[in-house]
Amino acid sequence: MKVIIFAGGVGTRLWPLSRKHTPKQFEKIVGDKSMLQIAVSKLFPEFKWEDIFISTGKQYEEIVKDQLPKLPVKNIIVEPEMRDVGPAVGLITALFAKKNPNEPFALLWGSDHLVRNEQLFRKVLRAAEKIILKDPEKIVFIGQKPRFASQNLGYIEFGKQIEEIDEVPVFSFAGFEYRPHLSIAEKYIKDGHHAWNLGYFVTTPKFLWKLFEQFSPELHKKLKEIHSAYQTNTYEKILKTIYPTIEKISFDNAILEKLDPSCARVLSVDIGWSDIGAWEALKEALSEREDENVTKGKVMLEDSSDTLVFNFTNQLTVGIDLEKMLVINTEDVILVCPKDSVPKIKKLVESLSGTSNEHLT
Question: Is the pTM of this model over 0.70?
Answer without folding.
Answer: yes
